[in-house]
């Protein structure tokens, strides 16, 4: 296999170069600009990737070649401070992960005074699939679990972005050009009230629950979080999402334009861009995988479904962070999705199609580690 990089090997790759050129100088401008799917430039845009799959760490040469303007992108930004220079405080952020499961852990505990049996009347949660209509308690708690997870994520991120965990120094931006400037209030408003984001997700969850479209076990309050099922749901969801994501990029330019292109206007995304895209994108890449996953892993109880919903939605939010996160070095060791990995996709379009797990990209040959693949684009230590 040639050691040439994808961008050097064939005409379609030129479109990826032009994406970088058009977007790297000013993300705000590029967000309104034209963005094409990977491989959809000089040719028709359809068809599988024809790029080397298992390439070495790509040389940075293509980025500072005369044809590319990306080499100037980072010049005005001071060097990022490695996370290790901030002491132990950023590691407090790791507590975020168990906190994402606060509600299902508390309510499903058999001993705790917060057990659902102590908190709610039996008629609210007892459910016989043969005779009962779905009851709203499980749905309400599921939505609440995601909301609580989001509260913790946003609280952590506001402290982290506000430099309270890093001794007053800005955390390391994922991209060498630095993080985009915006007000926190605008970010939260955009994040929470995009119709294609939590609004559509909430509608999907409500309708599938109340119309009895979930497997019967999902309505059961018996037991606690089923950890194996939780992992199975996360991996399966991300696997199906990976396939749908690739399809959106590669089936046709038209499908890409109406579905996924709006999300790709962010070539230097921020945390609050996670669910900012289009209705079609959310349906194809989130809702169809969610419904498929539920109908494959058919033995989850309500606590597992709740834990899965909170983990999935909040992890998807976190990988869009404009800053490297404290746990990234651990996640990278296990191939778990980080902001750096996902920024590679937003910036270069044709790599890192997975979100929560990089395993599918590693197997399929589309994984690229950010600071090795493009060290002038991405900061060290992300
Ligand atoms: Zn994204
Ligand atoms: Zn994409």
Structure notes:
The chain is globular and about 60 Å long. The two termini are 29 Å apart. The longest helix is centred in the middle third of the chain and has 26 residues, at 136-161. It has one domain (82-373). Helix 9 (136-161) runs parallel beside helix 15 (302-318). With 382 residues, it is mainly α. The model is unreliable at 1-77 (pLDDT under 50). The protein is built from 19 helices and no strands. 47% of the residues are buried.
**Radius of gyration using CA atoms only:** 21 Å
Order of helices and strands: HHHHHHHHHHHHHHHHHHH
Mean pLDDT score: 82
Discrete helix count: 19
Shape, principal axes of CA atoms? globular
Q: State the secondary-structure class.
A: mainly alpha
Main sheet properties: none
- Give the oligomeric state: single chain
Total strands: 0
Query: What is the total domain count?
Result: 1
Strand content: under 5%
| Helical proportion, percent range | 40-55%
Spell out which ligands are present: zinc ion
Distance between the termini: 29 Å
> Uncertain spans, ≥5 residues at pLDDT below 50?
1-77
